[in-house]
Design goal:
Blueprint: H1 5-11, E1 18-21, E2 25-29, E3 39-43, H2 55-76, E4 81-85, E5 98-102
Antiparallel strand pairs: 1-2, 2-3, 3-5, 4-5
Length: about 120
């Protein structure tokens, strides 16, 4: 979609600090984080609505979110990491991204370590 911020990031026409990338999904740090380490996980194809997302890809997004959460727990020493499916109209984004953010013990470090492929 022409005006979609996440499509621009997915195609590489807009820069992002990418922490994980596969052929059909990617994760990157949020430019307006609610907490340090706040990231977005998106499919690389434009999806108009949550129920249009292929179930297998949705499952892989959740699995990647779990891997990122485990890494954030190690980096930040927290007990929990939030995982949210949300609609991003506030940022002129017509997609369903997933947001992940550590949920306690703020220490000011970004979660910049790449997620391993295993």
């Amino acid at each position: 979609m022409e005006d979609c911020l996440f499509c621009s990031i997915a195609t590489g026409s807009m820069e992002a600090l990418v922490i994980h990338e596969e052929d059909d999904l990617m994760a990157f740090l949020d430019i307006l984080p609610i907490r340090e380490g706040h990231c977005q996980i998106i499919p690389k194809v434009h999806v108009e609505a949550f129920d249009d997302l292929e179930p297998a890809l949705a499952g892989r997004i959740v699995a990647l979110g779990q891997r990122i959460a485990k890494r954030q727990k190690e980096i930040y020493g927290v007990d929990r990491v939030a995982f949210l499916w949300r609609w991003c109209m506030a940022r002129n984004v017509d997609r369903y991204p997933v947001a992940g953010s550590r949920s306690s013990n703020f220490d000011g470090r970004w979660c910049m370590a790449r997620v391993s492929s295993s």
